[in-house]
Write a structure and sequence with these properties.
With 457 residues, chain A is α+β, with helices and mostly antiparallel strands. Chain A is built from 12 helices and 15 strands. In chain A, helix 4 packs antiparallel against helix 5, helix 6 runs antiparallel to helix 8 and helix 11 runs antiparallel to helix 12. Chain B has a two-stranded antiparallel ribbon. The chains are: A alpha+beta (457), B mainly alpha (263). At the A-B interface, strand 3, helix 3, strand 12 and helix 9 of A face helix 2, helix 3, helix 4, helix 7 and helix 8 of B.
């Protein structure tokens, strides 16, 4: 379908020395990114994948933008966007064709889905979900590579990305059962057969038709669900002097997944008699154990980030096929009520603040809510409400309002008028600034193939 | 001419914490709709990411990096700042980079004082400084030193020094008032004062595998060496911490180190 491109917001930020195009703040589900080239990074709103912004930096030659990046800008944002950018060279400008309508929707749709699939492929701890998401990303990259028709300057970085993702797709064969692989390939072929690109309704229909097979796939390869434990938080019950939880989820950004298994929560034992907190983490299969010495467990107060104790992780006797590492922290028996435990390879760095952790949590919940929204409206309503509550804790009124508006929209879709009214009342009085013009949510995005492997809740 | 890693780091740390750097951090956060309160976290993650990356490059190229001047470096670190700002609004990603092993440390510059010694010197502190306050202030000071990259030890990484010091503080703060340390600590030669005994207890608990005894039950020579080496280091740190705690909680600057020693 052809559309008349709306005017693009092309701005230069003198402080940060970069050009931006349509750069809106990411919504409550955060952002997925595509590094198209060293100078061009795309930001895709996870909850609204058609909301795409760009950050452009110069190629180091004067203030110019690389020819390849200009070509990508023309294809994604329209040729008019180039008028605001500095030219790389005379030939670059001469190639532009200012006439005729542009159809940006196809490329933007593939880009949005590529970004989300690629992020899912990287972030998930489930190898199969990761492989499937990688395959879907490869599919979109491949389509982009073939249909990058709006410019004669085809960005070679897209080709490289496609090749990388296609290689990832190839690795699926080693990870899932033949039946599941056949099912996945069939889904991918069906999606690829849509011309020019599958619509949300088409994909939903495909999802429904594939449900039994998707369930088979899930049963064959195991399920993946969003992690539920708060990161690192350990609360003590002073009546029993015991932590309320025996497990904690670790902040994956702080340690190497090549050494510790990020999918497995750390196990915590509180030994009151000695004042010791024993933290055990499962070691990644095949890890080089000597390198564990670079990883430290630390316990600190959530509010002041004062470290109470820290100790390096050390491997312990294997149990069966599993290898674990352990650290013993002496925190005594003083006035500990609540603390954060994490594992880090940078113990000299301050732990993240409460605000930082709250933003992480809100973004993670929002990302999961976006996933649920792609599958089914009902389940996503609660998730967006939880997301809104967490953004409220982060004092972010804009994203709180956006999350509530998404929940309201889904409630209306499900014909839950009373619930929708209640949700609207919640955000009607919030003072949103940049989000005020975005409170009418766009329709839910079509599901990814990888979404089918994640159980709906 | 390329910069050395040290030259770059000196420039970068100065830049990151300058007024200009602070303004940039706020700008990068604000552009993504993030509150100014997140600026400290963003700057910290930015500094860590840049230092890790540049240190990694420096290791592979004879400690020389391609930045030739402040302008070139500013372009690089500004881009890194934008990336870190975007990462604030991305779901968990685990992309750790090799940790910087750190440069050779400078000699320690620590002075003297312990909680009990402090009280002996300054009776007024007894009223002002509760034990719990002192403990928390001491932990906060060690935390600040660790994260401020000012903990130095010629033999151990800084986190190890912090580990031992915090262990000693926790043991001291956790024990019932007026109760002496376990009797077994008395056998440790050279540990005649409470502070020494605390440190030695921490060392023996943290490095139990190194506690070997001779046929007559005495601690082996290597243990005594470890006690001396690590003990000196941690003792000096704790004395410095105690002096700072005294200043922080009473407002008095302790300058008479000898007086504290013999107070």
């Amino acid at each position: 379908m052809a559309d008349t491109p709306s005017p693009r917001r092309v701005e230069f930020d003198h402080d940060l020395d970069t050009w931006t195009i349509d750069l809106d703040p990411p919504g409550p589900g955060g952002t997925a990114t595509l590094q198209m080239s060293p100078g061009l990074r795309l930001l895709v709103d996870v909850a609204e994948p058609d909301r795409i912004g760009a950050i452009l930096t110069s190629d180091g030659i004067g203030d110019s933008i690389a020819t390849e990046d200009r070509a990508a800008v023309a294809a994604i944002f329209g040729r008019a966007a180039l008028d605001e950018l500095p030219t790389a060279s005379a030939p670059g400008r001469s190639r532009r064709s200012p006439n005729g309508p542009e159809d940006l929707s196809e490329i933007r749709d593939h880009l949005g889905r590529l970004a989300i699939a690629e992020d899912l492929a990287i972030e998930t701890t489930d190898q199969v979900v990761g492989a499937v998401a990688g395959a879907e990303a490869a599919l979109h990259a491949e389509i982009l590579r073939d249909n990058w028709h709006l410019t004669r300057d085809r960005p070679t970085s897209t080709t490289a990305a496609a090749q990388r993702l296609i290689a990832l797709h190839a690795s699926i064969a080693e990870r899932i059962t033949p039946d599941a692989r056949d099912n996945l390939n069939r889904l991918l072929v069906e999606i690829a057969s849509f011309t020019p690109t599958p619509t949300a309704d088409q994909l939903r229909a495909l999802s429904r038709n594939s449900e039994p097979r998707a369930a088979d796939t899930k049963a064959a390869v195991g399920s993946w669900r969003p992690t539920e434990l708060p990161v690192g938080r350990l609360d003590f019950d002073k009546r029993t002097d015991s932590p309320a939880a025996g497990q904690i989820r670790l902040d994956r950004r702080l340690f190497s997944p090549a050494l510790l298994d990020p999918a497995v929560p750390a196990e915590v034992t509180w030994v009151r008699a000695t004042g010791d907190l024993i933290v055990r983490c499962r070691v990644t299969r095949g890890a080089y154990l000597v390198a564990l010495a670079s990883h430290w467990v630390r316990a600190y107060r959530p509010d002041t980030r004062t470290v109470l104790a820290l100790a390096p992780l050390e491997p312990i006797q294997p149990t069966g096929d599993e290898q674990w590492a352990e650290a013993r922290l002496h925190i005594g028996d003083h006035d500990v009520i609540s603390l954060i435990v994490d594992v880090t390879d940078a113990p000299k760095q301050r732990p993240p603040s409460v605000l930082r952790r709250t933003i992480e949590e809100a973004t993670s919940i929002g990302s999961n809510a976006a996933h649920l929204e792609r599958l089914t409206a009902l389940a996503a309503i609660d998730a967006w409400e939880t997301c809104a509550h967490t953004w409220h804790e982060a004092n972010d009124t804009d994203r709180q309002a956006l999350a509530l508006a998404r929940a309201e929209n889904l409630a209306l879709t499900a014909r839950h008028e009373d619930q929708a009214a209640a949700l609207r009342n919640q955000y009607a009085n919030l003072h949103a600034t940049w989000a005020a013009t975005r409170l009418e949510p766009r329709p839910p995005a079509a599901p990814l193939v990888a979404d089918l492997l994640v159980p709906a809740q | 001419m390329a910069w050395s890693y040290e030259a770059f780091e000196d420039w970068f740390l100065g830049f990151a914490y300058s007024t200009e750097g602070t303004s940039l951090v706020h700008r990068a956060a604000g552009r993504l709709g993030l509150a100014p309160a997140i600026a400290d976290d963003l700057r910290q993650e930015w500094v860590l990411a840049v230092r890790r990356t540049v240190a990694g490059r420096a290791r592979g190229s004879d400690r020389l990096i391609e930045f030739v001047d402040a302008d070139t470096s500013a372009s690089y670190v500004t881009r890194a700042l934008q990336n870190k700002a975007i990462d604030l609004l991305r779901k968990d990603r685990s992309t750790p980079e090799p940790i910087d092993p750190g440069r050779p440390s400078m000699a320690a510059n620590w002075s003297d004082a312990t909680p009990h010694e402090l009280r002996a010197v300054s009776p007024s502190a007894e009223a002002l400084v509760t034990e719990r306050d002192w403990c928390e202030t001491a932990r906060q000071q060690i935390t600040n030193d660790l994260h401020g990259n000012v903990l130095r030890c010629p033999g151990c990484p800084a986190p190890r020094v912090a580990q031992i010091a915090l262990y000693a503080i926790n043991v001291w703060c956790d024990r019932p008032t007026h109760e002496s340390l376990p009797s077994w600590t008395a056998e440790i030669q050279g540990g005649t004062q409470e502070l020494d005994q605390l440190i030695y207890q921490a060392l023996l608990q943290i490095f139990p595998e190194q506690v070997q005894r001779s046929a007559d039950g005495r601690l082996a020579a290597n243990v005594r060496k470890m006690k001396q080496r690590c003990g000196d280091c941690v003792r000096d740190l704790l004395r410095d911490i105690a002096r700072r705690c005294h200043t922080l909680t009473t407002g008095d600057v302790v300058s008479d180190v000898d007086g504290l020693d013999h107070g």
